[in-house]
Fold this sequence. Notes:
The protein is an alpha/beta fold and 394 residues long. Helix content is 39%, strand content 15%. The chain has 17 helices and 13 strands. The strands form four sheets. The chain has a six-stranded parallel beta sheet with strand order 3-2-1-4-5-8, with helices on both faces. The protein has a three-stranded antiparallel beta sheet with strand order 9-10-11, covered by helices on one side. Strands 6-7 form a two-stranded antiparallel sheet. The longest helix is centred in the middle third of the chain and has 24 residues. It is elongated.
Amino acid sequence: MTGRPLDGVTVVSLEQAVAAPFATRQLADLGARVIKVERPGKGDFARGYDETVHGQSSYFVWLNRSKESLTLDLKSEAGRAVLDELLAGADVFVQNLAPGAAARLGLGADALAERLPRLVVCDVSGFGATGPWADRKAYDLLVQAEAGLMAVTGTAAGMVKAGISVADIAAGMYAFSGVLTSLLQRERTGHAAAVEVSLFEALAEWMGAPAYYTEYGGRAPDRTGGRHATIAPYGPFPTASGDQLIVAVQNDREWTRLCTDVLGDPRLATDERFARNSARVAHRDELDELITGHLAGLSTETAVKLLDAAGIANARVRTVPEFLDHPVLAGRERWRNVGTPGGVMRALLPPASLRGVSPRMDPVPGIGEHTTAILRALGRTDTDIDLLRAERVI
């Protein structure tokens, strides 16, 4: 095994909730030292979302393994002095504080670039650091609504949100890749470009297909529940076993095989109602009724065998407990044990596997768990640390 790609890289993060912690956890996965600066007392408010994982929040344990937790009151002069010392020795600074908070603390990208030109600064905001909504609060569901995602998610009877924090996750992914890109640029040119990511613009990118479909097709895609809005047949069908089986036909060649090898009716392949994808979408209800009528008489096992033999992509609609026991995750040995303040939990390995590199899977920190060690490394004596604690700076 070789060293990790980001060994020796230090990240300081003023982070909370999901987007920034997701970005920095991925940096930690690759070997970076991530110092998570939290407010004394309750820390990152995501710690309190729930208590389901050995007394810890499910969001927090997912997003914060392999980090060091330092508590600091940044409104105090002593707290700011500690942060400034950390930044002077850091490679990356990430923040997703409330709108304008970083600038008021003197931690804006421009101010930091003057003092620390090699520091990669990454700001994660709701709607951008400038523009008409720069000061507007943004949470995941609000951004899903503003970006039009909810308008295309759900059924004809009503819209729904995505079941995960998709805007936060999108922003975290772009913050992660942006930091990596700036680090690469710094190595090549000596200049560290500031990185700015907003939840809204991250999700706007992911809305590309329905946006272009709407702009150039003249209307928005329909909300079609578990079915694909613009491809058919592509959605769930019941089997005699009581399961829901997703059948996904991507082109006319696959449609012909489905008709011949699975449905047993080659004539359907050239039926003018179904011969092209656009026609199949237009006659989706008739199409789905035909396929349902056939698959509902087959066991899940039989249906899967027929579809696989015909080369038709398919999947079972699994519950979350079934996903946790998925044979692919078990067969590829994707689970590892990770420590948390309340006990050991299972965690999935990062999805990008680097050959010969073992990702970092260290414990989730307790609030302020590393404060004393970090301060000692900065030269503070135990007396200094006791005084900071007495003054509630840490």
